[in-house]
Amino acid sequence: MRRPPPTLHLMVGLPCSGKTTLARQLERDKNALLLSPDPWQIGIFGQDANDPLHDERHTFIETMLWQIAKRALQLGTSVILDYGFWAREEREFFRQQARELGARSEIHYLDLPREELLRRLALRNASAPEESFQIRPESMENWIDFFQKPDPDELPPREL
Fold first, then answer.
1. Which phi and psi (to 5°) does residue 83 adopt?
2. Number of folded domains that form the chain
3. Which residue in 38, 45, 86, 119 is a FRET match for 59, CA 20 to 30 A apart?
4. What is the pTM for the complete model shown?
5. Nearest alpha-carbon partner for 81 in 20, 9, 32, 149
6. Is 16 within 8 Å of 60 (Cβ atoms)?
7. Is position 150 within any domain?
8. Mapping DSSP to helix (H, G, I), strand (E, B) and coil, where does residue 33 land?
9. Is the separation of the CB atoms in 31 and 78 below 8 Å?
10. What is the per-residue pLDDT for 129?
């Protein structure tokens, strides 16, 4: 019997939207490899969200995790990338890469109103979870305005 192709799951949304919670559920339900840069970055560099090198470090870690994801997809293992994927161009790049690797792709988009994101941010910052960055409310406000919501045509799963 032929094995179904692996799937690349892209977790799309802003911080505090519930991406990681859903990603962990998908990890269990889909028997997929979950790759999230935040625990790696915090484990190596600590709470460096306000450090001038934060974005450079984050990009480096995402790039390294993508190398692992590509190999897993080649081996037939589904992968969940918990990156946020704020720009359509980025989402399209990863979906095309998945296709070239013989994998399906799915977007899991979590869309919450501004007020709810800011409420959740306040709770998260107050509880200081070990695997999450402390984020200033003004940063979140800027990110909300910057984020490119997926168009309806992006949302259906892409088969091979």
1. -105, -25
2. 1
3. 119
4. 0.93
5. 9
6. no
7. yes
8. strand
9. yes
10. 63
- Tokens, residue 144: 């909300």
The tens digit of pLDDT for each residue in 98-155 reads 999 999 999 999 999 999 999 999 998 888 666 677 888 999 999 999 999 999 999 9
Letter for the amino acid at 30?
K
- Domain membership of residue 160 (yes or no) is no
In a domain, 99, yes or no: yes
How far is Cα 115 from Cα 112, in angstroms, rounded to an integer? 8
Give a yes or no: residue 1 inside a domain: no
Long-range contact list for 117-126, CB < 8 A, 24+ apart?
117/14, 117/15, 117/16, 117/17, 117/144, 120/16, 120/17, 121/15, 121/16, 124/15, 124/16
CATH code for the domain in which residue 50 is found? 3.40.50.300
The pLDDT assigned to 128 comes to 66
Strands (E) located in the chain: 7-12, 33-35, 79-84, 104-109
The per-residue DSSP string of 114-142 comes to: HHHHHHHHHHHHHH--TTS----HHHHHH
Residue range of the domain that includes 138: 7-154
- Find tokens 């490899």 and name the residue: 33
